[in-house]
Structure formats: C-alpha cells, structure tokens
Amino acid sequence: MLTLPTYDDVCAAAGRLQGYAHKTPVMTSRTINCETGAELFFKCENLQRMGAFKFRGAFNALSKFDERQRQAGVVTFSSGNHAQAIALSASLLGIPATIIMPSDAPTAKMAATKGYGGKVVIYDRYTEDREQIGRALAEKHGLTLIPPYDHPDVISGQGTAAKELFEEVGELDALFVPLGGGGLLSGSALSTRALSPRCDIYGVEPEAGNDGQQSFRSGAIVNIETPKTIADGAQTQHLGAYTFEIIKRDVKDILTASDAQLVECMRFFAERMKLIVEPTGCLGAAAARAMKDSLKGKRVGVILSGGNVDISRLCALLAQ
Ligand SMILES: *Cc1c(COP(=O)(O)O)cnc(C)c1O
Known about the structure:
The chain is an alpha/beta fold. It has helices at 7-17, 30-36, 54-63, 67-72, 81-93, 107-115, 130-141, 152-169, 183-195, 211-218, 241-250, 259-273, 283-290, 311-319; strands at 26-27, 39-44, 74-77, 97-102, 119-123, 144-145, 174-178, 200-206, 253-257, 299-304. The relative contact order is 0.17.
C-alpha cells in the first residue's frame, strides 16, 4: 500500500517554498469570459521561476534532504522543465545535481540546465534506458533520485499552485489542469479537496497521447508509445503509481486537446493577455474553451503550467 500525500503535506511544502517560489498572479480576461459565458481565472505558472510550476515540486523535494543526501547530491532524468527545476533548486540549496538528458535534447534546454549549475549526463534515447542509468548512478554515488512526477514530495510541492489560486479567488465550480505524468493534477486535487470540495477537477492531455484518459476509464495504468505532439511537457508514456491513485479518487474526468487547439490558445494568450504560454501550458485552457456550453455562469480555474517555448518556435507555430 502506498502512503499518499495529503493536504497537510501541501501546506508544509508551501512553508518551504516561502521566499523561494513566486506567488504567481491570477489573471482574467473579459474577452474569454464573453466567449465562454463563464468567469475564468488563470493561474500564471508560466511566470513562475524557471518558467513553470515544476520549481515547486523540485524545491520541496530537495528541501527535505538530510545532511547525507545534501552532500551526495540529486540525480534526475528529464529533457524539459523538471531538469531545469532540479538544477535551479539544487543550486539555491547548495546541492550537487546530475541531470540525465537525451543526446538530441534542444541545445537551449541543455544550456539552461548547465547554466543553473547542473552536471549533464547524455544518453541515447533510442538504445538506452534513462531510468536504469539514473538508478545505476544513484547506487554508485549515493545520489538521491527525484523523478519528475511520481514522488510524494513532488506532488505536494505542485499542489501549492492550486492552493494559492483558491486562497486568492475563493471556491470554484471547475478546475482545468494540464496532465503529463500527473504530479500537477494530483497535487492540485489535494488542494481542491481541502479548499473547494465541490469543485470538479479535470486533467487535460494532448489528444495524441491520451494514456491518462485510457487509464482513468479502464481503472489500470495504460502505457503508450511517446506521443507525437507539440505539447512536449506532456509526452509522458504513463501515469505514476502515486499520481494515479489520487487521480482515480479525486478527479472528475480526463479530457484531451488537439495541437491545433493549443496553437489557437497560444495565439489568444499572446495577443489578448500579453502572456507567453508554452503548448503544454495551454492544455487546460483549450479544454475549458471547448467545454464552454456546460460552463455557462460558472467560476472556472485554469492552470497555465509553463511558458518555456523558444520565441522562434512560438512564431513558427502561430504562422502555420
Ligand atoms: C511537466 C509539465 C506538465 C505536466 O506535469 P505532470 O506533473 O507531469 O502531469 C504540464 N505543463 C508543463 C509546462 C510541464 O512542464
């Protein structure tokens, strides 16, 4: 039996993050309220440190290290926002960080990770298993492995974003959350159950990779091939053991959004709200817009999970 994190753990995480994470703004738009007939509240984690909510979970997990773990260091595998979140958190806490990245990871992301002081270990994503490399390094050097989503301290850290949202705007009727491996969604669920118990929680995945939807509807974790989508933060192949238990218990449904819908949302945020949101960060907003007929008159929260997209890529996507 897994011991699942609780809202008390989210509160403890919020205490650890105090003075380190930004309390990100909640923004509204009359244009989108008119379009949907609902009142939407956007929690802007694209404006979080390093550009995504992942700082919350990573910093919380590393803050709990004991002296031995701090000395030896942390290891993780990721090519995206979790890598940068671990590297930044580790440098703030004076902990050595090793990040395992695929050889074809974008040079900008590799440079950002190194810039935060992380040691990058390259692997071949077609012939090598990153989790195996991580475990081997952890064992050999006594490093602590912090995975991107399936860890109680990561989940409780991610839950602090929704906690701040409810504390700022009060109870909501629905909350839309981007979904990859489920750290953000399950953490958000812990805060929602405590602060807005009647709120319906929706996880939103890329249409091309709906493993979470399949898992939710079948009751068992479904594994898929790495999906082809512009939502690179949600190209996960399966939910986690912890995240799935919480999602099964607390979430109303799992929805999907197409790449075209994501681009439409990126355009809306850039043009109308002056916000740069990465494709994955638009998942919740895209699903809320698509569901507007059943949201009329409701108060709806949407987590904009990140803003890390190269400007040239943003422009290319909008030009299509
Ligand atoms: C990682 C990530 C997600 C998905 O989060 P999970 O905890 O894996 O579900 C969503 N949006 C962005 C911007 C991310 O970096």
